[in-house]
Design a protein that fits this description.
The complex is a heterodimer of chains A (about 260) and B (about 450).
Chain A (H helix, E strand, L loop, with lengths): L7 E10 L2 E11 L4 E5 L6 H9 L4 E10 L2 E2 L5 H7 L1 E4 L6 E5 H13 L5 H14 L10 E2 L5 H15 L3 E5 L7 H14 L5 E6 L12 E6 L2 E6 L1 H28 L1
Parallel strand pairs in A: 3-10, 3-11, 6-9, 9-10
Antiparallel strand pairs in A: 1-2, 1-4, 4-5, 7-8, 11-12
Helix pairs in contact in A: 5-6
Chain B lengths: L4 H4 L10 H10 L4 H16 L41 H7 L7 E6 L2 E7 L1 H5 L3 E4 H7 L1 H4 L13 H9 L4 E5 L9 E7 L5 E2 L2 E6 L4 E10 L6 E3 L2 E6 L4 E9 L4 E11 L4 E8 L4 E10 L5 E10 L4 E10 L5 E10 L4 E10 L7 E10 L5 E10 L5 E9 L3 H8 L5 H17 L5 H15 L7
Parallel strand pairs in B: 1-5, 4-7, 5-8, 6-9, 7-10, 8-11, 9-12, 10-12, 11-13, 12-14, 13-15, 14-16, 15-17, 16-18, 17-19, 18-20, 19-21
Antiparallel strand pairs in B: 1-2, 3-4
Helix pairs in contact in B: 2-3, 3-8, 9-10, 10-11
Classes of the chains: A alpha/beta (about 260), B alpha/beta (about 450).
Chain lengths: ~260, ~450
């Protein structure tokens, strides 16, 4: 585990969408090689955080900063963030009809790495990654996500991550809508891509995927704030108790803290 | 290399839409009496048909009053000699040369066919590719049953005008059970302004035959107006399979009012692509007429307008017999202050049971000032059929844009990728690799300088 300064740091991040306050001061520090899980009930602001970190234009950061290698990236366009090494796996990946998976990813890799890569060389690279992730090669020629099932789309997100080799991967509910076998496939895929210089922020509602992508830290997000942080045992506690009970305990704890 | 009779008789330039004018064209072409009679009938229909006005439903959205027919020259010689395609000017050659291999080629410049070529092997199989002016004399038994019968003067004012003033044109015939492996193309080129041209295609695919035919309409952009009034007649006989491609890429000065009808008999297969990017004001009518049963019709089309272009595109899926299927998808993108109208008609006539017809139109507004209308018309005179249609018009989707940008592409490149993908769903169906690449290049050219609006 890395011990130097966090290379990715969120300080007191406030975010609005259409003048509704969604994030109310999020703090998070991620060092190289760490896996952080952000868990929380629906509507707690998890996906807003993911979209904001990637720079979706509808999400306005009204306060705070997001530091990547010491630089505040909040004013950066999404493509610049991708070039810095940030990758977002979408909860709802979009279909791009008319653009094959192969073409899309080759164009994307060229843009992210800012270097040429021959069609032949890229094809071999992509097929290797597909084989590694046990994705049928036939998907390379199909239009990206067009007509794909929910599980297929999620696996394509993992494939994209494998191809683009980001330094920071933000996985937004990569497990949602998947059955148990598909969660295992996606989870094993992620852990096969992970390497010591890569960090992951995995956003999820359910603890199951964390058995495959084991986090160093678990954070519970409620009402646009991180209310509690801990190790992997926090996810296990959540699995045993559920959000209702755990959140009540958190509430009581924070009230006691305030009183003390 | 054959010479058409048109080329042998230089014709004084004619002005003014009159009976004397078309009679002079007919005489100059030394036409047989039955062809002259066709012109006479067409002229009579033209005279008897009122000029369409903005009050006519079909013309409500397309104001063509800038067309000053009487100011235009009605017959314009090619003004060049070309024994073969190698002799053609560079601009024409580059339009023709998609990198595909062609079994046959015909080139018309203005009102004259300047060259035709057909592979010897095809000629030996009985395939014909000839200037129409020659074919009416050499092959009347093949031409007469169809010429002016598929697109008839009764179809409207401008089909009638075409019938009277038709000049140049090409006839293509494929004998029964003959598969033409390499495609055949016809280029219509205009080199002058202040002219009207009336090009014609008559394609007859006899029983069980197979052919791919590409029509191109192109010119450079000139200052003064020019008018194109083409007609295409395609006859697909029992069990024949025809792939037909129309590429309209006129210069920005051209007004076009065009008419196509493709008539398909029992168990025929018709696969059509229309790509329209040129012209100033264009109104095209494409009628896929399924007169036989068990027909499979597949139509893909796109238009891309910019500047102040006006594109009016009407398709008809006309089911006149049972057990046929038709599938149509039209996509359009509009830039700047351009305007487009798509009208899609599905007509299921009485007795056409078990018809399965689908129609979809999707338009992409690339500017807030562009405007498109999408008008589906379903006329179903029958039970036991399935007819569905869909229509959607919108701007570049911001979430799609974000998705692509988050993969490293800047906003402009991401938007271009989305637009190219949008059209790719149509262009991928073009039957030739080189043609697909040409269409993709044309789409990129139409996008140059475009920025996605916030």
């Amino acid at each position: 585990m890395a011990t130097e300064q966090p290379f990715f740091q969120i300080d007191d991040l406030h975010v609005e969408i259409e003048e509704n306050q969604i994030l109310r001061g999020v703090d998070l520090s991620v060092k190289r090689g760490e896996i952080h899980a952000i868990m929380g009930p629906n509507g707690s602001g998890k996906s807003t955080l993911a979209h904001t970190l990637m720079g979706h234009p509808s999400y306005e950061a009204t306060a705070g900063q997001v530091l990547y290698n010491g630089e505040d990236i909040l004013e950066r366009d999404p493509n610049d963030r991708a070039k810095l090494g940030i990758f977002l796996a979408f909860q709802y990946p979009l279909a791009i009809p008319g653009v094959s998976t192969l073409n899309f990813l080759r164009t994307s890799l060229k843009a992210v790495k800012q270097e040429e890569i021959s069609a032949r060389e890229f094809r071999r690279h992509l097929l290797d990654k597909m084989d590694m992730l046990k994705i049928n090669r036939e998907f390379a020629g199909r239009y990206l996500n067009d007509g794909f099932s929910g599980g297929e789309k999620k696996r394509m997100e993992i494939l994209q991550m494998a191809v683009l080799e980001p330094q920071l991967a933000i996985l937004d509910e990569i497990d949602s809508g998947l059955d148990i076998d598909a969660i295992r496939a996606v989870g094993e895929g992620i852990s096969s891509i992970m390497h010591p210089d890569m960090s992951i922020v995995i956003i999820t509602h359910y603890p199951r995927i964390l058995h495959y992508v084991k986090p160093d830290y678990v954070h519970i997000m409620v009402d646009g704030e991180i209310r509690q942080s801990g190790g992997f045992e926090l996810a296990e506690e959540l699995e045993a108790k559920g959000y209702d009970v755990l959140l009540k305990e958190v509430m009581v704890a924070s009230t006691q803290t305030q009183q003390a | 290399m054959s010479q058409s009779s048109v080329e042998q008789v230089p014709l004084t330039a004619l002005q003014g839409v009159t009976a004397a004018a078309w009679e002079q064209i007919s005489q100059a072409c030394a036409e047989p009496a039955w062809v002259r009679d066709l012109r006479q009938e067409a002229w009579q229909a033209y005279v008897d048909t009122p000029m369409p006005t903005l009050q006519d439903e079909d013309w409500r959205r397309t104001d063509y009053r800038e067309l000053a027919l009487d100011d235009l020259l009605l017959y314009m010689p090619a003004g060049l000699d070309a024994a073969s395609e190698a002799d053609l000017p560079a601009a024409l050659r580059s339009s023709l040369d998609s990198g595909d291999e062609w079994g046959g080629l015909a080139v018309q410049v203005n009102s004259e066919v300047v060259c035709t070529r057909l592979d010897e092997s095809l000629r030996a199989q009985g395939v014909i590719l000839a200037p129409l002016a020659e074919a009416v004399n050499a092959h009347p038994e093949l031409v007469r049953p169809h010429l002016g019968q598929i697109v008839a003067p009764a179809d409207g004012k401008f089909p009638a005008l075409h019938g009277a003033f038709r000049a140049g044109g090409v006839f293509c015939y494929v004998p029964p059970d003959t598969a033409v492996e390499l495609p055949i193309q016809m280029l219509n080129w205009m080199s002058a302004e202040n002219i009207a041209v009336f090009p014609h295609v008559l394609l007859v695919a006899d029983q069980g035959s197979q052919v791919t035919f590409v029509e191109r309409y192109a010119s450079q952009t000139l200052q003064a107006p020019a008018f194109s009034c083409p007609a295409t007649e395609v006859v697909v006989k029992d069990g024949a399979q025809v792939r037909h491609v129309t590429i309209q890429d006129w210069g920005d000065h051209v007004i076009e009012l065009g008419y196509q009808r493709l008539r398909v008999a029992n168990d025929g297969q018709l696969h059509t692509i229309v790509a329209a990017t040129g012209g100033k004001l264009v109104k095209n009518y494409v009628d896929n007429s399924f007169v036989g049963s068990g027909v499979e019709g597949f139509h893909r089309g796109f238009f891309f307008t910019d500047g102040v272009q006006h594109m009016d595109y009407k398709t008809v899926q006309d089911h006149l017999a049972p057990y046929s299927t038709s599938d149509l998808l039209i996509k359009g993108a509009l830039r700047d202050r351009s305007r487009a109208v798509f009208t899609g008609v599905i007509n299921v006539r009485k007795g056409s049971k078990r018809t399965d017809a689908y129609q979809e139109n999707r338009n992409l507004l690339l500017s807030k000032r562009a405007r498109s209308d999408s008008i589906p018309i379903l006329e179903i005179d029958n039970d036991d059929v399935r007819c569905t249609h869909g229509s959607a018009t919108g701007q570049v989707d911001l979430d799609e844009l974000f998705y692509v940008m988050s993969h490293g592409l800047d906003k402009h490149s991401a938007a271009r990728m989305l637009v190219e993908g949008f059209f790719n769903e149509v262009t991928q169906h073009a039957p030739l690799e080189g043609v697909r690449a040409q269409l993709a290049a044309r789409i990129r050219q139409k996008m140059s300088g475009w920025q996605v609006e916030d």
